[in-house]
């Protein structure tokens, strides 16, 4: 008897929250009996998986065009194989709902941000009824951490501490799609962190739409700083990161927790959006440029080597040349190591979409180019200052697109800068998940080069449990097939979370 392997392919667009949601979608499909298309040897892979899932983003203007373009490319495959199932989830699905099936009637399932766990049942229902299933919930059905997860990495993991957002930024549609903030209890978060570490994870990133308001639901405004300190007590956890905070709620206790907790990394993503106080007010961002710069000064006073990154929007409605010059001034003063820069685009359903004085595209593009040029100068100057400095790199697979050509490996320094480093011939070669100490030989605008190992300089490999976990996955693997950790089951909870003894005790207020 021939057993046919049913395959899936999850395609992710958007932020880290979507990336983590896609890990859960993969876990759900694995537990339902499907196999990741990429995990099969290339010769055994079908051209298209049996189930293709698009996990969408609605933040950028071209998000819809990108989705419908991808759906259009799949239409011939659907006509050829009616049993192929196509599902669309994520923020754009939450926003557009039945419009997706109207524009692409070959789609089988549409589900929203609040009911990720419904995907297998919706696929079964659509298959049985031979009709599209559209299910969009207005409130969170179950906290995503309770769902099975198939992580992308053996040594690094995402941990959600909250979902949703209570802010009302006029350019952002995320609160309407993700809902109000919902916080997990610290004990549940630490239980997940400890479980990941037991599986070989050495680096975690705490995720939330606004991580530094964590605790609002259970009335503890110092909860995020306490959580960082608690993560510092988890044995075997080497690196802790988080994203993203909001400047308006960023407090000194969080800065102190970052500075005093050795495994919390000296990197901070602090979204500025605009350097103009007038524009910030129109954006409904409840801070001003002086307050923003003061935060950075306080961070650098306690964490001198912190690398600070940001988000910037160019061409918000009503932005004048003077406003834009204010942004350039703040960027110069902030000395960001890098910036995610965006041209403002109208998002239907946001207050900014209805504002007068939309800035002409030509003007936005010209300002955008100037901002990019300035930030590249700032980034390059900051990276050149690191030449000659030793850095510890957590080795990653696939971070360097030119690694094969340059015979280098790549990974992230503690401050999250991308480092490409040379491996001396005949010396220990690190695995993904291992740590390497090297010396920076050149600071480029977007990365660091560390060829000290082949220049008779610093080169030291430290084997880690993360590297062991990565190596264990490769044993018996097929060349060309992607190897990922097995599915981790979620931690289901009903009602109030039970009392739990935590080995990391630092959820009390620090002295």
TrEMBL record:
Q: Which cofactor does it need?
A: [4Fe-4S] cluster
> What's in the keyword line of the UniProt record?
4Fe-4S, Cytoplasm, Iron, Iron-sulfur, Metal-binding, S-adenosyl-L-methionine, Transferase, tRNA processing
Outline the extent of the MTTase N-terminal domain. Answer: 6-128
The record's principal subcellular location, in a coarse class, is cytoplasm
Pfam families in alphabetical order = Radical_SAM (PF04055), UPF0004 (PF00919)
The yes or no answer to whether the keyword Repeat is present is no
The record's listing under SUPFAM superfamilies reads: Radical SAM enzymes (SSF102114)
Q: What class of enzyme is it?
A: transferase
Which EC number(s) are documented for this chain? 2.8.4.3
Q: Which GO terms fall under molecular function for this chain's record? A: 4 iron, 4 sulfur cluster binding; metal ion binding; tRNA-2-methylthio-N(6)-dimethylallyladenosine(37) synthase activity
Q: Which reaction does it catalyse?
A: N(6)-dimethylallyladenosine(37) in tRNA + (sulfur carrier)-SH + AH2 + 2 S-adenosyl-L-methionine = 2-methylsulfanyl-N(6)-dimethylallyladenosine(37) in tRNA + (sulfur carrier)-H + 5'-deoxyadenosine + L-methionine + A + S-adenosyl-L-homocysteine + 2 H(+)
Q: Could you name the Gene Ontology cellular component terms for this entry?
A: cytosol
Question: Binding residues for [4Fe-4S] cluster 2, per the UniProt record?
Answer: 165, 169, 172
Ligand binding ([4Fe-4S] cluster 1): 15, 57, 91
Q: Is S-adenosyl-L-methionine one of the keywords UniProt gives this record?
A: yes
Q: Where are the transmembrane segments?
A: none
* Comment on bound cofactor: Binds 2 [4Fe-4S] clusters. One cluster is coordinated with 3 cysteines and an exchangeable S-adenosyl-L-methionine.
Q: List, for all copies, the residue spans of the domain called Radical SAM core.
A: 151-384
Q: List locations, semicolon-separated.
A: Cytoplasm
Give the family this protein belongs to, as stated in its UniProt record. Belongs to the methylthiotransferase family. MiaB subfamily.
Q: How does it assemble?
A: Monomer.
Q: What does this protein do, in the record's words?
A: Catalyzes the methylthiolation of N6-(dimethylallyl)adenosine (i(6)A), leading to the formation of 2-methylthio-N6-(dimethylallyl)adenosine (ms(2)i(6)A) at position 37 in tRNAs that read codons beginning with uridine.
* Protein name stated in the entry: tRNA-2-methylthio-N(6)-dimethylallyladenosine synthase
Q: Which organism is it from?
A: Ornithinimicrobium pratense
Q: Which gene encodes it?
A: miaB
